[in-house]
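YM 10:42: GNAT family N-acetyltransferase sequence, as discussed on the call
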Amino acid sequence: MSLRVRPASAGDAAAAGQAGYAAWLKGISPIVPAEARGRVTEESFASFVREIPEQILIAERAGVVAGLGATERGDNHISDIWVAPGHEGAGIGTALVRDLEKRIADRGYDNVTISVLSDNARALSLYRHLGYGLVSKGPEFDIHLGCDLETSFLMKDLTAGSE
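YM 10:58: structure's back
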């Protein structure tokens, strides 16, 4: 199936909201405190896309929104990578990370950072595979969930050449 990564538009909000929320339910919801789970909804993802589409990339697989990635603050930090469950293992996460890395390099940054829940083994494995190294690990307050979560902070040097 063909894979295309492109800039988001506000019109992607509903489909990206569905994809992001499905990914969150499968991968993140089970590893966060129960009292925090209700704070994230499909609308949380949709409004994110409507508010800052210029910081978001959409991955389409066979014309369907299969995932999204973002640099929420427009800097060198990848804030979000979400791949809908039916599209995992198809290279979507890799494509989103690589395209975001290109955007970050074009902004003039020499490195890229990403934070991930330390218990999210699948995501950690992907980022390590893509050349990210662990910088630190510890509790970090998540403003969206309103609680501290054990988080791994990773970085990749963009000047060393990619695989």
